[in-house]
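// run 5 | inverse folding | seed 20
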């Protein structure tokens, strides 16, 4: 079992990541606005299954390998920090878009919505970074089974991400209408997310392995 402080810290990191615009958020918002709240929630089911897939892969081998090879750990840590900085730039760069400024999508069946949510998450590099670069930093082999700690941390991330994304899917239409009527808030939202990402990148780059 991870330390409570590590579990809480990982939960905060998970919250910062899920609030950062990415493929999952854009897809869920687009579906909720174009096809309704139910479509957004069905798509979220597919996204959640993608989280489970990543968690199982990390727990059964990937995490243990990273923890056993210091150079691999450092390489992934630096790569993760660089990717977070890239996401931060995408959020604040001139001409950047809010995830609530979405394009129209055709209506799809429930099965296709679920499948597309799953595929979107599997191809989401932000989630790969979460499980390959972030999760291992919160595992302490001296605390016991790496497998058990990986599963607990993974379930924490899934709980945070699914809860937040469900709220986003349910409120997407209202939020999009508000931001369209208040451009200043769109600008603020983009810069807030960019700042959160840059802070996470700095923390990851400067943190040494303990």
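// decoded
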């Amino acid at each position: 079992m991870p330390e409570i402080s590590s579990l809480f810290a990982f939960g905060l990191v998970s919250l910062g990541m899920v609030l950062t615009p990415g493929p999952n958020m854009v897809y869920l918002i687009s579906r909720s606005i174009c096809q309704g709240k139910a479509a957004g929630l069905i798509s979220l089911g597919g996204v959640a299954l993608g989280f489970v897939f990543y968690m199982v892969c990390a727990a059964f081998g990937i995490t243990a390998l990273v923890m056993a090879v210091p150079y691999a750990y450092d390489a992934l840590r630096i790569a993760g920090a660089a990717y977070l900085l890239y996401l931060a730039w995408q959020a604040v760069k001139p001409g950047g878009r809010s995830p609530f400024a979405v394009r129209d999508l055709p209506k799809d069946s429930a099965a296709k919505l679920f499948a597309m949510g799953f595929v979107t998450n599997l191809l989401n590099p932000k989630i790969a970074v979460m499980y390959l670069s972030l999760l291992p930093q919160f595992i302490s082999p001296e605390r016991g089974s790496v497998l058990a700690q990986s599963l607990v941390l993974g379930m924490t991330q899934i709980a945070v991400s699914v809860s937040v994304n469900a709220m986003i899917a349910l409120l997407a239409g209202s939020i999009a209408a508000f931001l369209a009527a208040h451009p200043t808030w769109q600008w603020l939202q983009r810069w807030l997310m960019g700042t959160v990402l840059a802070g996470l990148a700095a923390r990851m780059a400067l943190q040494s392995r303990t």
